[in-house]
Amino acid sequence: MADNELQHVHSLLLQLQDLLREKFELEGEIESLPAALRGKEAKLEEANAKYIELNDAFTKAKQEATSNSIKYEDAFRARTEAEKMVERITVQREYEALTKQIDEAKVVENALLRARAASNALVDDLGAQLNAQGVVCEELKNEVAEEQAKIDAVLAGKRARINELDASCEAIKGDGISDEIYSKFCKIVKNKKGLGITPIIQGQVCSGCHMILPMQFVNDVHLGAGSIEYCPYCSRILYYKEDEESIDLTGFESEEGEDFFAGAISDEDLDSL
Question: Which is it for strands 197-201 and 205-206: parallel, antiparallel or unpaired?
Fold first, then answer.
């Protein structure tokens, strides 16, 4: 690769870097967008579970209330029939036995009356809770639908922008970047927080990771040996710029103080990109 051709590739990569950075930021935003929706969906799932639990309790209470009502009506009918029989009895012993039976029936009847009242009150209470929980579920369902609609609208805009960026990236690639370099550069930009190509500063320092570079390596980059050079520490593409002191790196995170070697991409990794 001739020196002027290499400079052209560097220029294209710098343009490509801005586009890729925006693309990867948008992709990250797309991944984080559903977080609010997941929270609302979890609340809706919890509310639905509570509604099902209340509905089961309501159904059981209604069955018990119906059973208590039937038992009470049977006890009331048995007692009233026994009282009618008293008028027709003439034998004292039978009269006393029937009177005792009526007294016992009254006790059972009163107990069933209280049980019926309690079960009916429970049905009314659970029915009110069930209706209120139904309202909560419906409101949460609407919130989930509204949140989903908002997310869908935002996603559509972001994906449309990503498509535009992909088209611009392809256009730049077609102007002189090989498939191999393009593939490697995309991974470097993504792995290195938006900074995939960076100049050598202060004569011998990678401006991406702030590591001091071997002098012979710097000379090769400076002279433009004709091939793409990668920082041996952070794996970013390096280039030499005469007005290096005026380079603006605002917005890029420095790796100074980190374990640069641990975060570097090896030659084998680059070859596999």
Answer: antiparallel
